[in-house]
Amino acid sequence: MSAVAPESQTVAELIQKYEPNITNRSKRVANIELIKWTTEEVKGVMEQLVPRANTKGSDEPCGPEFNQLDESLKGRLHINLVIWGIFGLGMLSLLPVQFGAAFYLLLHGKLSAIWRELPKPTALLFNWSTGLHAFVKAPKTLIKKSIEREEALCVNKKGKFVLRRQGYAVLSHVWGETMGWTTKESWGPVELDLRKKGLAYHHFQKIFRQCDTEWLWVDVLAMPEVYEDMSPTEAADTEALRTGIVNCLRGIYTRADKVVCLDSLLLRLRSGSKVDVAVILVLGRWIGRLWPFTETNLAKRVVLKTGDDTFDLDEIIEFFYETVNNEDHRYFHIFDRLAPLRPVPPGFRNWLGYLAHPGSYEPEIFRQIYRGCENRYCDVEVDQARALFPVLGLKWVSGWTLQQGLHHIAEKYPDDKEFLVRYCDYRYIQHDLQG
């Protein structure tokens, strides 16, 4: 990246005043996407961010509330006593009302209402108290069935799992924001013993409420985790299950009603402006991760959640498409960053001058991958190839290395090898694809 211009340096410093955890991103965005923006213009957007919550642990909007098993409610006796004390007092308060209501209904011959309606307040109170202790985790038997049937293993707000082929949404998120333990001093994973239990129910609810759906596919629930203390055999078996899910992802993403993007920075935005949403989106972590490209590329619809609203990514891209008329426009570099995430809609000229196949609205797939994966990274080396397999309609083999995955792509798409080589060179991946 070129040296930061004086105005861009000022913009980067301004961004860090509102979000101190994005030093590198703020410099890159200030020097590229916001290169034609003034400091005052950027300030106007950043002022729409709600300050981070001042919490002891994770201050992410959808982050976990504790990271060690002994910090959970199951390990804190005094809190257990308070919770069950509240439950007991609630029950005692409800009993006179319920007895009175039962007597009234009995006199009026409404017997069915006695056993159908009267228990509901008690059930709600019980669900509240037990929910504070509960964890959400997919049964392994259903994970295996989801692979066999090539169906999405979805969960509802109560933590119930079912297999579905339609009528569900997919969660797109950054693991470090929703599942990692973030404090002012450090970041790290949640403790192993706690991860094995699944997602704490109240943590799961924070995520689920954002998605506006009855059924949700969540990768960290649908894909079993390979734990550090597993034996080699257990790890291999679990990795095989994960590979099975990866090979179902194309169908899972394409059949979903929508993909819901939860970016922590975007969730702090309070603004109805598409431009504001786009600026904060390019500053967030989500757009810098590789797997979200796969999810957005295959999705019917991509929904962006802010602190108080919902935006359609296609509508934002279309807004910039109609507004930007040349490369000197101050929105051009934002448009250039967002447009490759989505396929070109029928009836539109190619977003950014892609060379399309004759008679097709679709750009060449590797041109789209190359542009869509720019400045997107992952923590697992093989994902640099594996994340492309659902987009290309290919099947991954458990145990493959990055190079084996790349060679398989080259074999299946020999005419597009030039762009695969460019993709590897851009990402500094060692390869022998030119041979």
Briefly note the structural class of the backbone: alpha/beta
The amount of helix comes to 40-55%
If helices are DSSP runs of H or I spanning 4 or more residues, what is the number of helices?
A: 22
Strand count: 11
Main sheet, how many strands, which sense, barrel?
Answer: 5 strands, mixed
| Content of β-strand | 5-15%
C-alpha termini separation: 30 Å
Q: Over the alpha carbons, how many angstroms does the gyration radius reach?
A: 25 Å
Shape: globular
- Major beta sheet, strand line-up: 8-4-9-10-11
Low-confidence stretches: 354-363
What average pLDDT do the residues reach? 85
Structural features:
435 residues; alpha/beta; 22 helices; 11 strands
Helix-strand blueprint:
Elements: H1 6-18, H2 23-31, H3 39-46, H4 77-107, H5 111-116, H6 120-131, E1 135-136, H7 140-149, E2 152-155, E3 161-164, E4 169-173, H8 175-178, E5 181-182, E6 187-188, H9 192-195, E7 199-200, H10 201-209, E8 216-217, H11 219-222, H12 232-246, H13 249-255, E9 258-262, H14 274-283, H15 291-298, E10 302-305, E11 310-312, H16 313-323, H17 332-338, H18 365-372, H19 383-386, H20 389-392, H21 402-412, H22 417-426
Parallel strand pairs: 4-8, 4-9, 9-10
Antiparallel strand pairs: 1-7, 2-3, 5-6, 10-11
